[in-house]
Structure formats: C-alpha cells, structure tokens
C-alpha cells in the first residue's frame, strides 16, 4: 500500500490504522498540500510514524521501513485551500506537547517520482489510498499515462455523490482543493477506483457512538493518548457544538474499506467526472446515474458499509 496524505487529524488516524495491521505493508507515504501547507503535512506524518514506532531511524526490527516523501506544494492551478478551521492551525488539532521529529527523515526523492518508481517496481501489486487533494496522482498520470493501469486498485476519500458540499455548497474539500487534479485522476486511472464520498462518511450511522469513542480514546497506550490529544478539538466541536449523533473520521473509514473490502455492503459502478466550472459547483463529483453518456463505468461508489465490522478495525489502531 501507498498512502497519499495531507495529514490532518483524519489522515493521522488512517495512517495509524494501516500501520497497525500485520496484513498491510505500507511501502510509502506521499505528502501533498491540502489540510495544511506541505511542510506541516510532512512534519505531521513523521509525528504519526513516531508514535507508531515506525520512523526509519527508530523502526522496530520486526516492522518494515515506512518512507515519507514530500510532494506537490500547490494545486495544479495554484488556487490554494486549507482546512485549518477544521484540523487546527497545525493540522493535528493544535494539540500541545508533541514530541519533536527529525525533518531530515523525509526522503529527497519527490513524491511523484517515488509513486512512479514504486509502482513500476511492483506492477499490479500496489493499492493506492488517496486521502488528500489528488495533485500528486494527477502529476504522476501526466508523467506516465500508464501509471494507473499498473496499480492494483485505488481508494479515494473525496467527492460528493448527492451534491452536498462540506465547506462549499457543492463540493467536498479534497476535490475542491484541486478540481483539475480530481478530473484528470478519475478520467485517466484505468484501474479499479473506489470512491468513499463525503456524504457516506457523514451519513447517520457512519460513525461510532460517543460511548464507544470514550472507551476508544481511553485505552492505556501511547497511541490512544496521542489519538485522544489530536482529536480533542474535533470531538468537542462535534459533540457539544454541532451535536452530531456519533463521531466519524472520513479518512479512517476509507482506510478500513481499503484494508477489508468485505466491510462494503453495497456499491454502484458508474461513470463519473468532476465539474470544473460554476461558482458553487467547481469540484463537484458528477455521476452519470442514468447512463446518458453511454460511457463505461470508471469508478465504484460505495453506498453502504458495515460500521460494526469497521469498528473492529478501528480499535486495533490504538493498541
């Protein structure tokens, strides 16, 4: 697996989950501008690896090396978008007392070049989990149009299948942050591509109960304490201000589905693209639900999943 991130709180949880699973080999984490600026994304990724004992210089002898690469610093058109209002100014909930990390552990090779190299070295074997604006992926496709066909499959957390936006009226954050990259990616991947949409992640019953959350973050491990620390701001807002029925992290759900496809209980294959115009709809995922274009399906959109099965995986990330 390669994970492409713009590490905020939700990316951090997804990375923790992937690294906790013995059946998953994370060969690389590629960083891209998104929730926070690229240097903060890289720093946050190292922080997550540190708490998981997976930094190159400190990795446990029984664990494979997890390398981190710095990628695109701007969207394709350099429009710029941040989510500091959601993830905090530092991307990790502005949590205090983070341990320092060594920035020299970021590999010198550019993330896009690393994606191309690793996929060429392992054709048909790598699952790419894209949890951020798709800039790195689109650039890889521009450098090598066959890049997508060499991947085993791709999971994308992004897009909105019902036209419901996040901060924007008609678009989800990752697609809005680089709509051109999202457009290129969906049109040119040419491998099984699964969309885990904003609406799915935020639907009723898609998260864990607050009672379960309280047990989850109180597990007596360093990872649980780190997770509780970075989630504090998000949990407080959702529980006491927005008053959501449950606690959900979009990237964590996408990672669980990527690790175990059997968690998915309903999906639909459909041709989809991304809107590049419109004051309120730029970055919106557009799907041909009635097959009017007669184009063959290019994505698999998850419609339903088992939250009970997903939570079995969630607990492993803090142990």
TrEMBL record:
Domain Inosine/uridine-preferring nucleoside hydrolase: 1-309
Gene3D superfamilies: Ribonucleoside hydrolase-like (3.90.245.10)
Any GO MF annotation of the entry: hydrolase activity, hydrolyzing N-glycosyl compounds
Family of this protein: Belongs to the IUNH family.
Protein name as it appears in the record: Inosine/uridine-preferring nucleoside hydrolase domain-containing protein
Organism in which the protein naturally occurs: Mytilus edulis (Blue mussel)
Upper taxonomic lineage: Eukaryota, Metazoa, Spiralia, Lophotrochozoa, Mollusca
């Amino acid at each position: 697996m390669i994970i492409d991130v713009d590490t905020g709180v939700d990316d951090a949880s997804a990375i923790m989950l992937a690294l906790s699973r013995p059946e998953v080999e994370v060969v690389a984490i590629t960083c891209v501008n998104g929730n926070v600026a690229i240097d903060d994304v890289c720093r946050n990724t190292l922080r997550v690896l540190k708490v998981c004992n997976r930094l190159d210089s400190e990795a446990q002898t029984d664990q494979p090396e997890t390398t981190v690469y710095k990628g695109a610093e701007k969207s394709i058109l350099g429009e710029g978008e941040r989510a500091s209002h959601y993830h905090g100014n530092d991307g990790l909930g502005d949590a205090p007392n983070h341990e320092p990390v060594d920035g020299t552990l970021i590999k010198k090779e550019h993330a896009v070049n690393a994606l191309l190299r690793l996929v060429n070295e392992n054709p048909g074997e790598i699952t790419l989990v894209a949890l951020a604006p798709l800039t790195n992926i689109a650039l890889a496709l521009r450098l090598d149009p066959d890049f997508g066909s060499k991947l085993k499959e791709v999971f994308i957390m992004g897009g909105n299948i019902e036209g419901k936006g996040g901060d924007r009226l008609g678009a989800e954050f990752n697609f809005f942050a680089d709509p051109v990259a999202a457009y290129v990616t969906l049109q040119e991947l040419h491998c099984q591509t699964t969309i885990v949409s904003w609406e799915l992640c935020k639907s009723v019953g898609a998260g864990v109960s607050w009672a379960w959350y309280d047990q989850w973050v109180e597990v007596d491990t360093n990872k649980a304490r780190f997770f509780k620390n970075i989630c504090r701001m998000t949990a407080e807002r959702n529980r006491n201000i927005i008053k959501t029925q449950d606690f959900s992290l979009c990237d964590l759900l996408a990672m669980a589905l990527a690790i175990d496809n059997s968690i998915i209980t309903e999906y639909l294959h459909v041709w989809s693209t991304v809107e590049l115009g419109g004051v309120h709809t730029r970055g919106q995922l557009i799907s041909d639900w009635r097959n009017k274009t007669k184009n063959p399906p290019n994505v698999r959109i998850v419609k339903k999943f088992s939250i009970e099965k997903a939570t079995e995986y969630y607990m492993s990330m803090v142990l």
